[in-house]
Amino acid sequence: MNDDNSASPEPTYAAAPTQPMSINSMSAKRGWFASAALVLAVVALVFSVGALWESYQSARELQLSVGTKLGEQGNALKDTNIRTEQIIRDLRESQSRVALLEGKLAEFQGQRVALEEMYRELARAPDDWLLAEVEQTLNIASRELTLAGNVRAALIALQAADQRLARADKLQVVQLRRAITQDMERLKAIPLVDTQGVSLKLDNLMAQAPTLPLALPDAQAPGERETRVKVDGDNLVARLGKDIWFEMQQLVRIRKLENGDPALLSPQQSYFLRENLKLRLLSARTALIARDDINYKEDLKIARDMLTKYFDPKAKVNINSLAMIKQLAENPVSISVPDITVSLNAARAARAARERPQR
Q1: Which residues sit opposite 214 in a β-bridge?
Q2: DSSP 222
Q3: Which pLDDT tens digit goes with each residue over 146-157?
């Protein structure tokens, strides 16, 4: 029994202490793992903070580097803009200089062409100059005939051209001189109209118009008053009656007119009459310059009628004016003037014949 008793508790006492030892070991293991995990967490945190700080420093350095690069790029861009503006200004100045040089070049080219033409003109023979002058003289004569109908000036120009050609012995211009001679003969056959002389006569008539005496003067000159007859034996009433009758006789004057029925004009109407006469003469001179024969003669006819009707026919100055107007009306002013194209064509043909071998 002792054996049984002694044996039975041993398993009981042996099993009891073994249980707390396993709990402590497990707790120790758990603490070690927790400490290790904590250490690992701290280490990871330290590494994370270090990595974060390093990344922050890298980002800061990168930001500083980027800012520095951007500043450098900005400065470089400013320098580039300044250089670009300077290049643009230089380019504009170069373009202005090029345009100025082109203008001077064009001017020089024009001067060169003018000098070449001058050299060619100077290199011409004296005969060519003579033909050119003759042609210019014929052109002047043609303009005088066409525009003014001045036959005399055209004749003088043709005679001068013929004399110039006559002195050129070596120049073969027989056809040209023959044409000039034919034109001169045709112009000499035309009755000459002295336009300048007729115009001067009309001017003189216009100047005399304000002084021409009218048929009835503007203001009658006071005549000599009759002397009053006095009788010593007359009484006061008789003398008073005679004085009244004498004064009444002086109020009315009777004149004898021999030229029919002249118009009675007031001083103002007389002024306008003289002005109308001057206007008619001026219109006649204008028609003379325009070679309008119809209006010229019509204006002179009206002026002559005005002189005959309103002015004194016995006054010598009026008689001379009427004779002058009649003489002027008989002169023709419209004459068909021939041209001198034959001479002009001959002169151009002579110049072309001399210039053809040179070309």
Answers
A1: 311
A2: P
A3: 777 777 888 888
